[in-house]
């Protein structure tokens, strides 16, 4: 990608942003922010709580703070988070789809 292409893409992006602001206003840029927070905030809280708990447990089994501990902790936290939060993400999606 050349410098001219980058400048052209930025120019097009700014033109589109200007058009959106003129036709729909600033408020439209944040449409969907509320429903997204309903899913993201608890999801991150569950992930980091599970990661911390798994890491504490695994430090007693493997060499403390090794790559193995971090990888297994992250994988297990991701699995637990996705399993627990899937129903909430479905509700969030339904809310978002009915709002707009």
Automatic annotation (TrEMBL):
Solcar repeats: 1-57
One protein family per Pfam: Mito_carr
Membrane protein topology class: Multi-pass membrane protein
CC per GO annotation: mitochondrial inner membrane
Keywords, in A-Z order: Membrane, Mitochondrion, Mitochondrion inner membrane, Repeat, Transmembrane, Transmembrane helix, Transport
PROSITE patterns: SOLCAR
Any one GO molecular function term: pyrimidine nucleotide transmembrane transporter activity
Coiled-coil segments on the chain, per record: none
Entry keyword Membrane: yes
Highest taxon listed in the record's lineage: Eukaryota
Cell location: Mitochondrion inner membrane
Catalytically driven reaction(s): UTP(in) + CTP(out) = UTP(out) + CTP(in)
Record flagged with keyword Membrane: yes
Major localization class: mitochondrion
Family under the similarity heading: Belongs to the mitochondrial carrier (TC 2.A.29) family.
UniProt-recorded name of the protein: Solute carrier family 25 member 33
Organism, as annotated: Monodelphis domestica
